[in-house]
Amino acid sequence: MSAMPKEGDLAQEAEIVWLEDPTELDYVRQALDKVNTRKGKPRYERDGRLIGYSNLNANAPRSADSGLFTRRTFYLLPHDRPNQPDDPDGPYKVGSPLEAVDPRTLRPGSVGEKTTRSQATAQTVPTPS
């Protein structure tokens, strides 16, 4: 399962674990995934790379319908701007995917925000020389 997180979905988050330095990235994609553990690196089955994930509180409940835990993953796909910062024709040279947020705005229990940096507005996009 993968879905867009809402604040209420994140009440059981204890921490966010970064596998890469998020301050170097304009944005990360985020998704809610159903997994069988409360903490630790989850299995990652998307294209691209896993940037981080959330760990849950020790008493976080399992989903009644699936018996799994709902945790966030943070990732980038191969065509995302942070993977191709010098591509002036990339699909996100301006803007970002719907599920993307500035990683500097992420905290446990908080969805995060789009910022001028994550959106790469026309003023912040470098022009090719």
TrEMBL record:
Pfam families per UniProt: DUF6009
Ranges annotated as biased composition (Polar residues): 117-129
Residue segments, region Disordered: 77-129
InterPro entries to which the protein is assigned, alphabetical: DUF6009 (IPR046051)
Record protein name field: DUF6009 family protein
Organism (species): Streptomyces lancefieldiae
